[in-house]
Amino acid sequence: MIILGIETSCDETAAAVVKDGATVLSSIVSSQVRIHHRYGGVVPELASRKHIESIVPVVDQALSEAGLPLPGIHAIAVTQGPGLVGALLVGFSFAKSMAYGLGIPWVGVNHLEGHINSVFLEPDPPSFPFVALLVSGGHTSIYYVTGHTTAELMGQTRDDAAGEAFDKVAKMLDLGYPGGGIIDRLAKEGDPARVEFTRPYLDKSSFDFSFSGIKTAVQRYISHHQDQYIEQIADIAAGFQEAVLEVLSYKVIGAALKKGCKEVALVGGVAANSRLRNKLRTDAESYGIKVYIPSLDLCGDNAAMIAAAGYHCLKGGMLAELQDDVFSRSK
Ligand code: KG4
Ligand code: ZN
User: Strand 106-110 and strand 75-81: pairing?
Assistant: First the structure.
């Protein structure tokens, strides 16, 4: 089954063509970073307008790179939520009209299920059940994943998401937006032991997270070291990053041990972090746990993961209807 995936939940207009939920025939991501950069975050109204401009060329490019004419598409999978409502509506309405016009089935996909399914686009995917750490700009959650579309939420952030904390700390340090990749690169030049921050464990026995405190700690450090902090910027980035990643790694391994799982998946935009990819693999190895992480282009928002999740939704008999609507938050 060949599925056209469409993703417009935030600031990436993406379309992809995926075969049988596993083989990516094309994946196009048009980022709006240049537009939102000067505001230090995503401006929802600008995001919606840009999606409207980009959706047709992005879908056209995905179809042409896959070498498929429109009749070659068997179904459409589109992100239904969570995300920015105005942004979601562009992709969702587009998919709805296209499926109606072509007379093919279509399905609304939960963006988070999309991220979890991103590991199945790699040649050696995990087997069920496994534990997944989803870390993105909007979410930080641990799931016990029992099937492609079934997962139990074990814990989540009580305030900021990990990616959001990276973005906010980068903004405090005047490094630009989005901050995750910038802090990742800068931290390589710094020493995490030189500027240490308290690890935000919250409660070591819980799988919930809290990152607003460490954000405030960085702010406090900057205001107490107004004269020196510029020279220490790489050490601050490294110290902040290490504190966040230590907690992420500790909790996801703890969740896997609790469930008796020997497999863990790391997904979402923050899964692109080079230190986290290495650290989690090393930490997990000592417990005999294997870590699955998608390639970099499948970590951030993309439509291939939406098509992959959509394939399993359709196989499970789910179908969207004309009156269906988007949702901003997960139920
Ligand atoms: O999954 P994603 O593309 O969008 C959401 O669904 O939120 O994640 C975006 C987040 C941003 O907060 C960004 O700063 C973060 O992922 N990110 C990173 C890295 N690359 C992107 N965080 C840490 N290290 C990175 N290398
Ligand atoms: Zn995402």
Answer: parallel
What is the number of the ligand 1 atom nearest to the C-alpha of 179? 14
pLDDT of residue 194: 97
Which of 112, 136, 164, 248 should be mutated for ligand 1, with most atoms under 8 A from CB?
A: 136
- pTM beyond 0.70: the answer is yes
The more confident residue out of 330 and 116 is: 116
Ligand at shortest distance from the CA of 112: 2
Ligand nearest to the CA of 42: 1
pLDDT of residue 38: 86
| Predicted confidence band of residue 331 (pLDDT cuts 50, 70, 90) | low
For the residues of 129-197, what is the DSSP string, one character each? SEEEEEE-SS-EEEEEEEETTEEEEEEEBSS--HHHHHHHHHHHTT--SSHHHHHHHHHTTS-TTTS--
Q: How far is CA 112 from the centre of its chain?
A: 8
294 Cβ inside 6 Å of ligand 1: no
CB of 240 within 8 A of CB of 197?
yes
